[in-house]
């Protein structure tokens, strides 16, 4: 299919908006043609996933745009980088290792991006609204925007997301279009009690199962209990995007594009109906842990995706109610905006006494922060449990937030339920 360009696209391609915009437009056009997009469409905001340093090429690309005086054309937030710029003392990297990672984060700011450095831009002032066309990188942010908010984005990877931000345009393709947002696979929760409680682990397990079975198809989930808050949907989406390639899910009666099962499928029949049983949930959760109950832990890691204010409130209440000191550090990955809100309210005044180590701008499963790796790490995050063993070489114990707190106090894996 031939890509049809608007006058503004052709002008940008010809260099009328500068060499940086022309370079970005050339890449975007090639990508759009490869995807079979017939045209480009306007976006209102972007979120860039390329702040995490993976090698010199990561930096060279952005330096080229900045060197030509480039600026993003829409409000653009930044995903996590490799460093905590607010708490540099917790980084376990040499100055030489930190230098290119820090430069990569800063050069994005030179392009006019917002230094949000969070994987949860939906928790900031830059949250989109239903139906808004955006170009977001970062898998959990993408699935949350599409599913929970009802905004529209494809899974944009490094460099393409930035090209969209530099041009204010994206390919009219995939989940930007109505016809591609309807469900294709039907997942049913069966065999659960009618009074099924909305436990955090249930949402993580369902996300893992759905991700593994869906591929790139849009799943529709029927039978989920109404969530306590959107953080449970955040956890479901993050797990589904980690174990698979899910960029949009519908939960019947819960998410905005699925008021009914029929509407979620757009009047079409599903390609397949897949039952999720209590046994399936138990198996999915079991696979997240590589150590048994009672195994010593060296740390607890929370906030992958970044901890929201509501999650902080739950955690602080649990720790203060416990009335005992944690035996291991509790690392909490969170966004700058949430951290500033907590500090302004005085909620972190006793953080050190509680054993809390706030981590901003990055995440403990992607960079060198944890001090000791000789014991397992406890987490309530399906995404952290999925990636950390391969990324940083740790054993993992998975449990609910309450289990993580009890485990931190005991210094070993403690779970209230299998």
The percentage helix is: 25-40%
Kindly report the CATH topology of the largest domain.
Aconitase, domain 3
CATH architecture of the largest domain: 2-Layer Sandwich
Helix and strand composition category: alpha/beta
Largest sheet: 5 strands, parallel
Structural domain count: 3
Mean pLDDT: 97
Total beta strand runs: 14
Count of alpha/pi helices: 15
Task: Give a short synopsis of this structure.
The chain has 418 residues and is of the alpha/beta class. It contains 15 helices and 14 strands. Helix 2 packs across helix 3.
Description:
The protein has 418 residues and is of the alpha/beta class. It folds into three domains: 7-178, Aconitase, domain 3 (2-Layer Sandwich); 182-286, no CATH class; 289-410, 2-Layer Sandwich (Aconitase, domain 3). It has helices spanning 7-13, 19-35, 56-67, 95-110, 139-149, 160-167, 200-214, 230-243, 261-264, 278-288, 309-322, 336-344, 351-354, 382-392, 401-410, and strands spanning 40-42, 46-48, 76-78, 135-136, 169-171, 185-189, 219-222, 250-251, 272-276, 297-307, 330-334, 356-359, 376-379, 396-398. The protein has a five-stranded parallel β-sheet, sandwiched between helices. It has a four-stranded parallel β-sheet with strand order 8-7-6-9. The protein has a three-stranded parallel β-sheet with strand order 3-2-4, with helices on one face. Helix 5 packs across helix 8 (230-243), helix 7 (200-214) packs parallel to helix 8 and helix 7 (200-214) packs across helix 10 (278-288).
């Amino acid at each position: 299919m031939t890509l049809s360009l608007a006058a503004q696209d052709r002008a940008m391609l010809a260099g009328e908006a500068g060499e940086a915009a022309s370079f970005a437009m050339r890449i975007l056009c090639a990508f759009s043609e490869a995807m079979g997009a017939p045209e480009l469409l306007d976006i209102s905001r972007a979120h860039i996933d390329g702040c995490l340093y993976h090698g010199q090429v990561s930096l060279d690309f952005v330096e080229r745009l900045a060197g030509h005086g480039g600026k993003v054309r829409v409000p653009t937030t930044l995903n996590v980088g490799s460093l905590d710029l607010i708490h540099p003392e917790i980084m376990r990297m040499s100055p030489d290792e930190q230098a290119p990672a820090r430069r990569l984060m800063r050069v994005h700011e030179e392009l006019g991006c917002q230094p949000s450095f969070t994987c949860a831009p939906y928790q900031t002032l830059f949250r989109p609204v239903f139906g808004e066309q955006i170009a977001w990188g970062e898998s959990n942010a993408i699935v949350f925007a599409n599913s929970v908010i009802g905004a529209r984005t494809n899974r944009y990877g490094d460099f393409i997301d930035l090209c969209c931000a530099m041009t204010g345009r994206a390919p009219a393709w995939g989940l930007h279009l109505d016809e591609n947002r309807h469900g294709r696979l039907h997942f049913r929760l069966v065999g659960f009690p009618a009074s099924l409680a909305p436990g955090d682990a249930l949402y993580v397990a369902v996300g893992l199962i759905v991700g593994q079975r869906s591929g790139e198809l849009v799943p529709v989930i029927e039978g989920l209990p109404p969530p306590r808050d959107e953080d449970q949907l955040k956890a479901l989406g993050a797990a589904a995007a980690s174990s698979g390639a899910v960029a949009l899910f519908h939960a019947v009666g819960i998410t905005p594009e699925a008021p009914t099962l029929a509407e979620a499928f757009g009047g079409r029949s599903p390609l397949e109906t897949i039952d999720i049983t209590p046994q399936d949930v138990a198996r999915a959760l079991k696979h997240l842990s590589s150590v048994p109950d009672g195994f010593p832990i060296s740390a607890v890691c929370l906030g992958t995706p970044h901890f929201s204010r509501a999650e902080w409130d739950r955690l602080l209440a649990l720790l203060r109610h416990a009335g005992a000191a944690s035996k291991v550090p509790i690392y909490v990955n969170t966004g700058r905006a949430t951290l500033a809100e907590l500090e302004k309210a005085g909620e972190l005044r006793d953080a050190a006494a509680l054993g809390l180590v706030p981590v901003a701008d990055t995440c403990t499963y992607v960079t060198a922060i944890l001090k000791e790796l000789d014991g397992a790490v406890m987490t309530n995050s399906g995404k952290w449990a999925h990636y950390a063993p391969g990324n940083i070489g740790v054993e993992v114990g998975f449990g609910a937030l309450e289990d993580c707190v009890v485990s931190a106090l005991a210094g070993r894996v403690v779970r209230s339920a299998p």
